[in-house]
Predict the 3D structure of the following.
Amino acid sequence: MQLYRLRHVPLALLAMICLSGLPSDALGQERRQLPDFTLHGEPTHAGDEAGLHAFVETFREHWAAQDTAALMEMHTPDTEWINAYARMFQGRDALGRFLEDRLFPSFSASVSAEEAANMRLVSLRFLGTDGAVIHLATDGQRGESRNAGEAQRRTHIHLVLQRAGTGWLIAHTAIFDARN
């Protein structure tokens, strides 16, 4: 029995040596770690990047205030929204009803304010001339899906935007949690 265990020691050592040589990016993919901000692609128009940063700030303000009407003005009429529990809403009206009647009333306003304060911009990605993806991450107290031993729930939000005149609107939202 002891001989069997000893035969695996060289394999374990080899695995540890191989893993230690991995680039730091591969090791930085832990659920709770966030990479430094990255910008992907090239903005089509002068001011696009600044406009998206301003868009994020406006989104954060409206989320903190639980201002459903203002949030819906940031979405396309045919928006799709998928939350971390795979509940999907199609259309701005359906999403607005969910936020106003179910999500926001279910939690103290301080929960949304905390999520907004903790929102961090992970990346911006320009897609062609009229599209962009915003990746946000936040920590908060919304819901039961926190990992055991963790004080806050880590949530990632992907906002897919399409150009609307000189601004942007959210066409699709995907939300997911960092769970064990």
In short: The helical segments are 2-20, 24-27, 48-64, 68-73, 92-103, 109-118. The first strand starts at residue 38 and ends at 40.
